[in-house]
Design goal:
By secondary structure, the chain is an all-alpha fold. The protein has helices spanning about 5, 20-50, 60-100. The protein is built from 3 helices and no strands. Keywords: Membrane, Transmembrane, Transmembrane helix.
């Protein structure tokens, strides 16, 4: 039997259920689902408490040095990009001057 067949409200004798019986069974299934969800959340919280991760301490001077190194690399890339744009502008002016 799959999960859906297990959860379908049916009487054991395969007789049709009354509306009241059907509603009671559905309510019971919903209560069971709610209890299972509450238990799952409780277990997850307990697990999270037991397996807390600790952040490693980073020395502020090391962090500053790393930040400065990244800034220098970015500045170097930006300088090359500016140089490339300037060269392209000069090439466009030369083309326009000799063609036009």
């Amino acid at each position: 039997m799959n999960e859906e067949e297990k959860r379908t409200p049916q009487s054991d004798s395969d007789e049709p259920l009354t509306r009241a019986d059907y509603r009671r069974q559905r309510e019971q299934l919903q209560k069971d689902d709610l209890e299972r969800d509450k238990k799952r959340v409780r277990v997850e919280k307990d697990y999270a408490k037991r397996h807390q991760t600790t952040d490693t301490y980073v020395d502020p001077t090391e962090q500053l040095e790393a930040s400065n190194e990244k800034s220098k690399r970015l500045a170097r890339k930006l300088n090359w990009a500016i140089l490339g744009v300037c060269i392209l502008i000069v090439i466009v002016y030369l083309i326009l001057f000799f063609v036009g």
